[in-house]
Amino acid sequence: MPANNLRKNIQSPQSLREAWLAIAGLSAVFLFEMLDNSILNIALPTIGRELNASATSLQWITSAYAIVFGGLMLAFGAMADRFGRRRMMLIGLVLLGCASLSTIFVQTANELIAVRAVMGIAAAMTTPGTIALAFRLFEQDKLRIRAISAITTVGLIGLAAGPMVGGLLLSVAPWQTLLLINVPIALLAFLGIRVGIRPESQDELHPVPIDIAGAIFGTLTIISVIMTPTLFVDEGASAIIPWLAVVAVGVFVVLFIIRERTARHPLIDTALVGQPLVSGGLAYKAATGLAIAGLGYIISLQLQLDWGWPPFAASVAMLPQVITLLLVGFVVEKFVAHVGIHKAAWFGSLSVLAGMVVFAILGQASYGWVALTLVLISAGLRVVGVVAGVNVMNGVPKNRTSIGAAMVDTTDEITSGVSVAVAGTLIAAFFVGDFSQGHWTSSQAAQFHSAASFGSWVLVALAAGFIIWASARTRQAKQV
Known about the structure:
By secondary structure, the chain is mainly α. It has 20 helices and no strands.
């Protein structure tokens, strides 16, 4: 053991420059995740025309990826802790490259949906490992925060540039090019991680068998949670199918909890989740997930359907969010160093909450208040996104970092789905008439305003509850 510790200390980089190859590889992974989310949407009308796809098929082209991605993260995170985070990442990158390359042969919408599902599997294999591998590269939290900030900044650049790059490529090349971009990104990530990150030693892996039943119940739970909001939006709150999905969520949650409490080697140890740093970090992530997804959904509808802005103008209107995310990235490290990691999470979450309150009170008055909302939420999200992940990683054992990272990402997916469900269900309940057509009457506009205001306050209350809980939990943890 002393020899192993000495080996780790010698190989631990003392600066980001010493680990530039590994950081470049991990940044490429995060770039894929962000770029994929933003670049494909602009091509959906073109895909619909060329593949003769229905509106439902187009929805499943995006939903298949998100559902598979979110549903499998916990299972693959557990596998990575046992078989190797680096190994799982490399396998996922090979799968990503092959799936993206297969886009060349796609002839129908169903084939593209299948390709997107495979890409979701690859994303579930690679995404949790990004935080886990970046965390174990360094021994100091300062370097960990700096590395995670650098990695996420690259991804945010992809998020910002995605629609513009996609539009430019579509003007000169077929839509398949947008997914073929993933091939060189996967190759770069593979080389950076293969060369820049050493394989885990046996004592860095979790020695117990994987909880297969728990992985199945956990996957079914997450998939049903993510699908339910889509069903409410598509079918409406008066249909029976969305409510059956709610019942299915409850059943799977109960089965998962029972399994995890009775299994000899559970997928997620309740004692692990109960660690103050872990539960506090996850609660902070839940609060920001509610804000960015739920309010983002409401704002998008308000700009286009209520105010009548064209899609391009609505996308430009979201630029304050992207610009703030990028700019705060340059100061987040100094801010955390100045106030401490726990206070940084607290201040960041308060900025998110302040943005939500601004929108709930003034968001329908003018775009200036919407822009202020986006700035406050994005600034807080940038801080919380870094420090909450580090808190969770500090709270889990070194041989469970992948499942810890998977819990962080899964929390984002679930709270995002729940927040959209809350907003979409309330709008469906308040609004009478053809919602998506636009050109509303004054009465319908008033109904939307009431739904948007009430939905915003519900999200504020939920986020405030998570923030209070997170603050109480992290106060119990040892100060870093």
